[in-house]
Amino acid sequence: MRQLTEKFVIGGFGLALLLLSSVGAASFWSVQKLKEDKQWVTHTNQILNILDRLNNGFLNAESGQRAFMLAGKVDYLKNYGTNKQEVYQSFQSLRQLTRDNPNQQRRLDTLKPLIDRRFNLLEELIDLLKQNSSDRTKLIVITEQNHTVTKQFQLISQLMKDEEIILLQHRTALTNYRVNQIIFVISVGYALSFALLICVYILLHKQIRINKALSEEAIHLEKQAAKAQLANILETVSDAFIALDNNWCYTYVNERAGQIFNRNRQELIGKNIWEEFPEGVGQKFYHAYYQAVAEQRVLEIEEYYPPWDRWFENRIYPAKEGLSIFFQDITRRKLAEITLEESEKRYRSLVIATAQAVWIADAHGLPKEFSSWRTLTGQSEEEVKDWGWLDAIHPEDRQLTESIWNQAFAQKSIYNVEHRVRVTDGSYRFFAVRAIPVLDANEQIIEWVGTHTDITERKLADEALKQAKVELEIKVAERTAELYKLNEDLKRSNQELEQFAYVASHDLQEPLRAVAGYSQLLGQEYQECLDESAREYLTYIVDGATRMRQLIQDLLAFSRVGTRGQAFVATDCNIVLHQALSNLQVAIAESQAMITHDPLPTVLADKTQLVQLFQNLIGNAIKFRQGESPQIHIGVAKTAENLEPNPDWLFWVKDNGIGIKPQYLERIFEVFRRLHTRREFAGTGIGLAICKKIVERHGGRIWAESQLGIGTTFYFTLNKN
Questions:
Q1: Beta strands 322-329 and 240-245: pairing type?
Q2: What pLDDT digit, counting tens, does each position of 620-666 carry?
Q3: Three-state DSSP class for 423?
Q4: Separation of first and last alpha carbons in the chain
Q5: Nearest 5°: phi and psi at 299?
Q6: What is the largest CA-CA distance in the chain?
Q7: C-alpha 297: how far from its chain's center?
């Protein structure tokens, strides 16, 4: 599904780019063709102008000749030569301009002899007049011939003009057709591109939500697997085990603990330990639990619990999530200790519940009574003498045993050690050694009374638990690394999608600039050729391209709020507000807005995004104003609902604008959500969505309260920390 969505996104962007590029190419080609049509229109107009100059040249020449004939002054003939030269130059220009038109060339071939004949007749008349000839018959003949030639000349000239006028009308119609074609192509391309952009954005948004859901599901499954594996381990140990959260509620109880409590362990989950066992409040382990939490260190205690008349050994492991407690019933061992303490003085300190060996040594540690030891180890009396008993200690533990013994002997303190002892079958077992010095009245050692307690099962259980813990930590580390890699892949995927969106959006703006530019150029250069509808269509194209470019920029700003933000630093909101007002100074001046504010605090925030937040909210208050001058106030207070030492800051932006209907107060923060048409108020419908995303990135929330026709107040919170 994810790969399919990515293919749709890439394909959508590619199709949008291809479509816009095609629209740009088609527009460029149409504009070039339009330029060619304009050149042909200009060419036709030039021919018509030259034909007019040709006729005017003849008229001017004839006017000079007639004036000379009537007045007899030679001065009227001064411009005759210039007019004649102008006529022949115009003829050559016509020859050059109509070389692509065979019909006109043929007419020019016919026209050339007529021009020559006409000038010859004019010059004959001028010569007769200069000679003061009285031959009126000749004058009349020449005049009649000139009149005939003139009619032929005018006929051919009019035919040429009529053909050029027809060509002009055809080319003008073709130009108008191409203008309408450009408008249609650009309009259709713009509409399709906009639709594709909306579809791609929806797919991008959906893909991000899917990635986030997959990440959360993966984390949840990993936690469940880890808990299940840990539960299997805890059920195999012989010790009772419980886990408590920070509210002193059971989160786990193994089977052995349920047996000791004589309760169904599942019924205890989620219940408070002090409510289920109120008699435990005030006991030694009660205080030990709180001490472990406060000091965050491991504690081991032994305590008699009167309600159950039992002794328990507790090992308490604190963590951020609560407490993990291993405990076991040591009643038998404690009762044995008590019994032995009540016996003879030499055995009063004998501490053993599951005794394996009891021994007595002299003041220097040499054996006195080692019968139990010999039974345990199989050593003979000779082998035990002096320090021979050390031979039964595992070689790796002998140095530690001697070191701790020397320390206890020097300090006259209790001797405690754990080591491995070779028993009669030749195997080594773990023993807890405890020996107490018996002192005389002078505090001198008389003898040592000690015990060896077999703790092999417990040690094996501890080792198994440690090994299981190590294995679990390794597996958790491996799964954590895999999860981290998965999250990095998802993060990289989102970054690649965002980068792709940025690049594609940047590339989308280039054809839009071309569309807007060529449309404006078209409107400027061919304004006289366009009718009112065409100019209106061009205005729609430029406005649509501008709005689409702004929409792309707003979409980029929306997508970058969570990914391109800066680090949170201590930010003075007064400076932020001043910068936002500076950015809006033109709108403030035009609307004559009155803006006031409370003294604002310093918060940890992204300064750039905070400026955008204030600018968007104040800009909306100015935009959606009523007829009167807008009154805007920015206020702040600490939230009353938060009773912690560092409460949130509550900001609000209040205006006296047009207000919002109650049913739309939740929907205004959605992307592309507009409550008014673009003719009423400009905008893309993304501003408040950006505000919401900025506030949520800062750990706050945003909402609005409004009364239609009275005004609107936007509230948002920022966490002080």
A1: antiparallel
A2: 888 878 777 888 899 998 876 544 445 678 999 988 887 777 776 77
A3: coil
A4: 39
A5: -125, 145
A6: 185
A7: 42
Rounded to the nearest angstrom, the gap between the alpha carbon of residue 3 and the centroid of all alpha carbons in its chain is: 20
Rounded to the nearest 10 degrees, the angle between the axes of helix 102-130 and helix 80-97 is 170
Tokens encoding 290: 């709180």
* Chain centroid offset of residue 79 CA: 82
Q: Regarding predicted confidence, which is higher, 294 or 108?
A: 294
Interior/surface letters 48-76, b for 16+ CB within 10 angstroms, e for the rest:
eebbebbbebbebbbebbeebeeeeeeeb
Give yes or no for a contact between 421 and 452, defined as CB atoms under 8 angstroms apart.
Answer: yes
Mean of per-residue pLDDT scores for the chain: 76
Q: Is 593 left (phi over 0), alpha (psi -120 to 50) or beta?
A: beta
Angle between helices 136-236 and 102-130 (to 10 degrees): 150
SS (H, E, C) 1-45: CHHHHHHHHHHHHHHHHHHHHHHHHHHHHHHHHHHHHHHHHHHHH
pLDDT for the residue numbered 680: 46
Q: What is the DSSP letter of 271?
A: S
Contacts 24+ apart (CB under 8 A), 396-401: 396/420, 401/433
Bridge partners, 502 (sequence order): none
H, E, C per residue of 427-464 = CEEEEEEEEEEEECCCCCEEEEEEEEEECHHHHHHHHH
Tally the residues of the chain: 721
| Identity at 490, one-letter amino acid code | L
> What DSSP letter does each residue of 347-413 carry, written as one string?
GTT---SSEEEEEEEETTS-EEE-HHHHHHH---HHHHTTTGGGGGB-HHHHHHHHHHHHHHHHHT-
**pLDDT over threshold 60, residue 349:** no
Burial class (CB in 10 A: 0-12, 13-18, 19+), 169: exposed
- Whole-number Cα distances in Å, 198 to 12, 550, 581: 10, 14, 32
Q: How many whole angstroms separate alpha carbon 575 and alpha carbon 589?
A: 20
198-218: average pLDDT: 75
Q: pTM score, two decimals?
A: 0.33
**Dihedral, CA of residue 341, residue 344, residue 349 and residue 350, to nearest 10:** -90
Q: Where are the alpha helices (DSSP H) in 72-135?
A: 80-97, 102-130
Cα separation of 69 and 56, whole Å? 20
| Mean pLDDT lowest among 62-76, 440-454, 582-596, 635-649 | 62-76
Tokens 């003979």: give the residue. Answer: 380
Q: How far apart are CA 230 and CA 240, in angstroms?
A: 14
Q: In angstroms, rounded to a whole number, what is the distance separating the alpha carbons of residues 622 and 356?
A: 91
Q: Helix 136-236 crosses helix 456-525 at what angle (to 10 degrees)? A: 170
One-letter amino acid of 150: T
Report the C-alpha gap between 129 and 71 in whole angstroms: 11
Tell me the C-alpha distance between 38 and 280, whole Å.
102
Q: What is the pLDDT of residues 282-302, one digit of tens each?
A: 888 888 888 888 888 888 888
The answer to whether residues 300 and 284 touch, using CB atoms and an 8 Å cutoff, is no
Residues whose CB falls within 8 Å of the CB of residue 468, separated by 6 or more in sequence, listed in order: 233
Residue 140 in tokens: 């009349």
- Under DSSP, is residue 712 helix (H, G, I), strand (E, B) or coil? strand
Q: Which two tokens stand for residue 252?
A: 């786990």
Q: What is the pLDDT of residue 578?
A: 92
Q: 328 - beta bridge partners?
A: 313
Q: Which two tokens stand for residue 350?
A: 């004998």
Distance CA(313)–CA(330), nearest Å, equals 6
